[in-house]
């Protein structure tokens, strides 16, 4: 699996998702980004009476591995059929095409989910998910600083971490490197470390304590646990590694997290 199999254009990504519909049972549609001349793809898999897991990727356009990993998870039938899935294949199409963290207006979409959504993309997601409850949300990212995989597990107190350890153990068993956090490694706004518990490969986040450090610039995970889900997972793979390896990391992590959820429900 080489990088040129996965071209960095949103048109190619969207076409790949459309091509996967018939073989996977994926129900795919577009939702409007109000105030901007673009749409977001959203997909559904599974029966309506099953617990729903949200999977998303591509909120930062310069982190393409997560978006392609999400496609392969669906295409290759790796999602546990005991759950239904709500899938956002790419939350920042203009950034994906430009290879930029921000969208076409120069805004970081993942710092715009507060207040009902302050970018066209965030508003589209918040509006589409309004009044929905989910068993778990998982967002796939990449990190230019990292040399190994790590994750954020975000929840409101009181909570006990359930996902971090099995996911990290699965990555280690597969032979993938895990990130050790050295002083100065950025894991949130200045001061937010007081709301975090850090270990190799894991950052456990107290959502209530961390939210004030973001002000109005709330990321997707913090908003999700306030409104829609008991836990939000953010997976980070190291951009310095080959894309095929990063995709493999995401696949192992997602499968492990959903297997953990299955043991809990």
What does this structure look like?
- It contains nine helices and nine strands.
- A nine-stranded mixed β-sheet has the order 1-2-4-3-5-9-6-8-7, with helices on both faces.
- Helix 3 crosses helix 9.
- It has a single domain, classed as Zn peptidases (Aminopeptidase).
- With 265 residues, it is of the alpha/beta class.
List the helices and strands and how they pair.
Elements: H1 10-19, H2 21-24, E1 27-32, E2 39-45, E3 52-57, H3 64-75, E4 84-88, H4 93-98, H5 120-128, E5 136-143, E6 150-155, H6 164-173, E7 196-199, E8 202-206, H7 207-214, H8 220-227, E9 232-238, H9 243-264
Parallel strand pairs: 3-4, 3-5, 5-9, 6-8
Antiparallel strand pairs: 1-2, 2-4, 6-9, 7-8
Helix pairs in contact: 3-9, 6-9
Low-confidence stretches: none
Percent of sequence in beta strands = 15-25%
The largest sheet, given as strand count, sense and whether it forms a barrel, is: 9 strands, mixed
Instruction: Determine the N-to-C terminus distance.
Output: 35 Å
The number of helical elements comes to 9
- CATH topology: the name is Aminopeptidase
Query: Which CATH architecture would you pick?
Result: 3-Layer(aba) Sandwich
Q: What's the total count of β strands?
A: 9
What is the H-and-E element order? HHEEEHEHHEEHEEHHEH
Helix content range = 25-40%
Give a short synopsis of this structure.
The chain has helices at residues 10-19, 21-24, 64-75, 93-98, 120-128, 164-173, 207-214, 220-227, 243-264; strands at 27-32, 39-45, 52-57, 84-88, 136-143, 150-155, 196-199, 202-206, 232-238. With 265 residues, the chain is α/β, with parallel strands linked by helices.
């Amino acid at each position: 699996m080489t990088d040129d199999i996965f071209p960095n254009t949103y048109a190619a990504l969207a076409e790949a998702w459309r091509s996967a519909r018939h073989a996977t049972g994926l129900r795919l549609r577009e939702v409007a980004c109000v105030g901007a001349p673009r749409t977001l793809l959203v997909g559904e898999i599974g029966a309506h009476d099953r617990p729903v897991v949200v999977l998303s990727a591509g909120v930062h356009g310069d982190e393409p591995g997560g978006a392609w990993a999400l496609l392969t998870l669906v295409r290759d039938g790796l999602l546990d059929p005991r759950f239904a899935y709500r899938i956002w294949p790419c939350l920042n199409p203009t950034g994906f095409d430009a290879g930029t963290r921000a969208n076409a207006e120069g805004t970081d979409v993942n710092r715009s989910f507060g207040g009902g959504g302050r970018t066209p993309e965030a508003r589209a997601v918040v509006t589409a998910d309004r009044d929905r409850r989910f068993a778990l949300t998982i967002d796939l990212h990449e990190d230019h600083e990292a040399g190994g995989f790590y994750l954020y597990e975000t929840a409101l107190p009181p909570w006990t971490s359930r996902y971090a350890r099995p996911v990290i153990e699965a990555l280690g068993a597969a032979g993938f490197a895990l990130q050790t956090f050295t002083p100065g490694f950025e894991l949130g706004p200045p001061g937010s470390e007081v709301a975090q518990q850090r270990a190799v490969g894991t950052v456990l986040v107290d959502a209530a304590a961390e939210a004030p450090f973001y002000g109005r610039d709330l990321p997707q995970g913090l908003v999700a646990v306030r409104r829609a889900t008991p836990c939000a997972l953010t997976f980070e793979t190291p951009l310095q590694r080959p894309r095929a390896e990063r995709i493999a990391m995401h696949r192992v992590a997602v499968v492990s997290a959903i297997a953990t959820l299955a043991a809990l429900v």
